[in-house]
């Protein structure tokens, strides 16, 4: 089954306290986005689409030595809106789409390979990469159908009940979709939320409503899922990458 990879790299990264786009900050001597593209290339995809937005030209320039196509997200209206920009470059693509974030460089190639293999073997339309966190505060929770690999619900912390908050399995923000499921579901999501944005996670609501199977694969190493939003998290990622 052919694979395409969409990397979200359009965010501003205001909490980094810097004018540099977040994905161009360096860890272990290289820009965050380069770590992500290197692992993407190792998966041998048919296409890599980089979604650019904030300081798009600077980000494009920094990756011009890579065989990636850039799609512009302007204005930036959320994660779902970012992935919508990949539809045109992936027109007529029949296969699977892996979605990664340009500010999450810690995923291992092995985990991404395992996620894709699991997605294929489980006959799911969408698969979420999850991790178990001792302290899951702040993360979206993944609620499974009891005793199965199937996901029943993905719920943000702020919307979770007290019982759901006790779940330690969290959403990493890395997903594999069947391309047709992804782009047809994106057409059904709305901006009817507090941020007035298109949330990529709302796609799962469409899948659940239509009875499409959503599976979850859990990485044994929760360190992999750390994204980078602050200088402190960047320093932490640097330590983990060097290790």
From TrEMBL:
Residues 6-214 form the Nucleotidyl transferase domain. It catalyses: N-acetyl-alpha-D-glucosamine 1-phosphate + UTP + H(+) = UDP-N-acetyl-alpha-D-glucosamine + diphosphate; alpha-D-glucosamine 1-phosphate + acetyl-CoA = N-acetyl-alpha-D-glucosamine 1-phosphate + CoA + H(+). Keywords: Acyltransferase, Nucleotidyltransferase, Transferase. One of its GO terms (molecular function) is transferase activity. It comes from the Bacteria. Gene3D superfamilies: Spore Coat Polysaccharide Biosynthesis Protein SpsA, Chain A. Catalyzes the last two sequential reactions in the de novo biosynthetic pathway for UDP-N-acetylglucosamine (UDP-GlcNAc). The C-terminal domain catalyzes the transfer of acetyl group from acetyl coenzyme A to glucosamine-1-phosphate (GlcN-1-P) to produce N-acetylglucosamine-1-phosphate (GlcNAc-1-P), which is converted into UDP-GlcNAc by the transfer of uridine 5-monophosphate (from uridine 5-triphosphate), a reaction catalyzed by the N-terminal domain. This is NTP transferase domain-containing protein. It comes from Chlorobium phaeovibrioides.
């Amino acid at each position: 089954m052919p694979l395409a990879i969409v990397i979200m790299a359009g965010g501003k990264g205001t909490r980094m306290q810097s004018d540099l786009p977040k994905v161009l900050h360096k860890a272990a001597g290289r820009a965050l986005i380069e770590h992500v593209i290197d692992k993407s290339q190792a998966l041998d995809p048919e296409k890599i689409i980089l979604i650019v937005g904030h300081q798009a030209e600077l980000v494009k320039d920094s990756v011009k030595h890579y065989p990636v196509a850039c799609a512009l997200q302007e204005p930036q209206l959320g994660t779902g809106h970012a992935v919508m920009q990949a539809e045109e470059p992936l027109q007529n693509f029949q296969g699977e789409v892996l979605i990664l974030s340009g500010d999450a460089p810690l995923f291992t190639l092995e985990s991404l390979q395992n996620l894709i293999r699991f997605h294929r073997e489980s006959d799911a339309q969408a698969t979420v990469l999850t991790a178990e966190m001792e302290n899951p505060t702040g993360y979206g929770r993944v609620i499974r159908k009891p005793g199965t690999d199937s996901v029943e619900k993905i719920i943000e912390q702020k919307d979770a009940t007290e019982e759901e908050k006790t779940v330690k399995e969290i959403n990493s923000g890395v997903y594999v979709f069947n391309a047709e499921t992804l782009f047809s579901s994106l057409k059904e999501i709305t901006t009817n939320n507090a941020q007035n944005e298109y949330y990529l996670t709302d796609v799962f609501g469409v899948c659940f409503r239509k009875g499409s199977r959503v599976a979850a694969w859990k990485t044994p190493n929760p360190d992999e899922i750390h994204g980078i939003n602050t200088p402190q998290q960047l320093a932490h990622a640097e330590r983990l990458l060097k290790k």
